Amino acid sequence: MRIPLLLLAGGLCLSAEAPAVTWHGALWASATATDRDTPDGSLFLRPLDASAGSFALDGVQLSADVALAEGWAFRFTALGGRMARNLNLASGSSHDGDLAWPEAYVSWTRGADTLKAGRMYTPLGMEVLDGTQTVTASRGLLFTYALPFAQVGLAWHHAFSPSWSADLWVINGEDRLQDNNRGKTVGLGVTWNRGGSPDHFVTLMGFTGPEQDGLGASAGTGAEGRKRSRVSLSGQWVLDRLTLQFEGDAAREDLAPGTLVHGGLRDRATWNGAGLIARYRLTEAWALFGRAEALNDDTGLRLACDPTLAAVLPPTQGVDLQATAFCLGVERRWKQAFTRLEVRRDALNFKVSDAAGRTFKDALSATWQVGASF
Predict the structure, then answer these.
(1) Which domain, by its residues, includes 124?
(2) How many domains does the chain have?
(3) For residue range 256-268, what is the model confidence (pLDDT) as tens digits?
(4) Tell me: the pLDDT tens digits for 298-341?
(5) Can you tell me the distance from the alpha carbon of 194 to that of 192, in angstroms, rounded to the nearest whole number?
(6) What CA–CA distance (Å, rounded) separates 90 from 119?
(7) Percent of the chain having pLDDT more than 90?
(8) Which helix (H) or strand (E) covers residue 3, if one does?
(9) Does the model's pTM come out above 0.90?
(10) What is the pLDDT of residues 144-154, one digit of tens each?
(11) N or C end: fewer C-beta atoms under 10 angstroms in the chain?
(12) CATH number, domain containing residue 82
């Protein structure tokens, strides 16, 4: 990470005064139960969430915002718990423990422009790793299977007006802490905010670049030329007590021959999904929430992250999987602390087996979550 460190050093040299530091923290934990007993104890189509019958620390997060001088700033976030382990596994990190650093970037702002360099959360989708900032108690299908968590590289933001802005990204790859090929993934985004309001916005983004191993012992021939491309649409609209969030993503990736069962000389995987998230505030303390999602995966390459499915179905050309998830819940808040109770149903158009060998295609689960931010 030479570029961020050099830029940070340059920012520190701009002022002899001690920089101002603002701290932010959050922690969240959950307990789950389900009507399906899977072979490894995981929740069906919910591999990121706590295992069935357990109470787990999903995440504890501490962030530091350091204001330097003349528009320079630095942000660092340390993340612990189950979500840290998920992030490490997704990023290809040699460290697979329960401690990760999803953010470590230096930024420079002047006028309508902001430039960031380092590691930062992905702009894709409406869900984030910080469970205190999400609407629901469980993780959605798009967050789990379709979208990355974080990225390393450069990000440039330009505001044309209070209502219109654009973003440009040049990154190592989706979730990649260290680049695994010689190419870069590039992205472009356009956002419309109604009247400049952060409560009413729509964002359209597109990313493309090589994501497969082109370096090291696991390098594949032709990996640099096989790209993953995606188009993503997301947004939010607040109507008095009701908050609506939506997200949609469509992607494809060329694969090495032989990656897919029944594949051809040029294997290709495609997937797409959409979700709607709603929260209705009953009082200052109580709220209802819900989410509805569908994810289509023509080869099972993305849904193979679910261990119950991966045990019976390798990525296969033309399998045309469709997963759906619906949840409803209630939230109680005490200023910065909260608790949520959620009931969720997941379904798949393909039979899998439970621990006793019985086949099923859907599962009902319940999640109790507690958390606080400070």
Answers:
(1) 2-373
(2) 1
(3) 888 888 766 568 9
(4) 999 999 999 999 999 998 888 999 999 999 999 999 999 999 99
(5) 6
(6) 14
(7) 78
(8) helix 2-12
(9) yes
(10) 999 999 999 99
(11) C
(12) 2.40.160.10
